[in-house]
Amino acid sequence: xxxxxxxxxxxxxxxxxxxxxxxxxxxxxxxxxxxxxxxxxxxxxxxxxxxxxxxxxxxxxxxxxxxxxxxxxxxxxxxxxxxxxxxxxxxxxxxxxxxxxxxxxxxxxxxxxxxxxxxxxxxxxxxxxxxxxxxxxxxxxxxxxxxxxxxxxxxxxxxxxxxxxxxxxxxxxxxxxxxxxxxxxxxxxxxxxxxxxxxxxxxxxxxxxxxxxxxxxxxxxxxxxxxxxxxxxxxxxxxxxxxxxxxxxxxxxxxxxxxxxxxxxxxxxxxxxxxxxxxxxxxxxxxxxxxxxxxxxxxxxxxxxxxxxxxxxxxxxxxxxxxxxxxxxxxxxxxxxxxxxxxxxxxxxxxxxxxxxxxxxxxxxxxxxxxxxxxxxxx
Length: 379
What we know:
By secondary structure, the protein is an all-alpha fold. The protein has a single domain (4-377), classed as NCX, central ion-binding region (A middle domain of Talin 1, Up-down Bundle), CATH 1.20.1420. It contains 14 helices and two strands. It has helices spanning 13-28, 35-63, 67-91, 98-126, 133-156, 167-191, 202-206, 211-216, 229-263, 269-279, 281-292, 296-321, 335-352, 359-377, and strands at 129-130, 356-357. It has a two-stranded antiparallel ribbon. The N and C termini lie far apart (51 Å).
């Protein structure tokens, strides 16, 4: 039986690292950092990511699926929204498209990067990755609807010139996004919770005998006794601390990122991609670890849940913030990104419908993700 969840929290690195990262955030916030400070903050950021994954898994073990995936997805997204609004408030006109770039990057990272890696890991371990098509299909449909309403339609509406919504249209998109997100959470956690639970296959039962070996190799034993409520609450608090440190330190190094992007002659949209990659690191690691345990459904819950939360919470927050934010709010995608989004939806549907996937499906999603990254750098 694993003892990781019963380790004394006061002596564990997963407590010390988030606290140190938070202290680094306090001293670096709003300052121009020299090179050595950027390196130290980046190390703190990486440590906070690993700590966040650990605490998210402790909370998930306590509350069970799909609640564990929701905790991590919502926590990351809420702080991501705060980061976007802060950067837009401080950045002026050049950040007019930051929300669009970051949200679209989050959709591509989750639906292609995280899904592709999870399917690849699951298929490499067990030849075929098995998941629940009903739950994953419902999540994918929600992602596609939110993405089209919030990121595609602004390119074609005529009330305002350019890829912008009018005030009424932005209000409708915000209300619709929030309502659809709330409906999805209700279905996922109450009415059809069984659609989002890991599939119990014969292979999983056969591999139960390998639990001791997995624990010896450093993997969490999913059959271990759940942590106490006190331990789970401590981990929840530390998860929030770690995520604040992740996003805050990402903002602290963002001037260096922006300068590096500008010096390299890359499009400004690359900044949004890098921010999304940093913020979604905890979910990526948690999803891959779940896939290694043959819990691919948990990985898909994390991936699609993060995409839904990213759009469903960011658009309403940006709509509210637009009351005091000056300048335009560019939400509509360009032709290249719309093609990538359409291809992602089609490929994802073909992946999800059978309820099982091989190395090929994982590879296809990863190639799409690589294409997105390449075109972000070289549009």
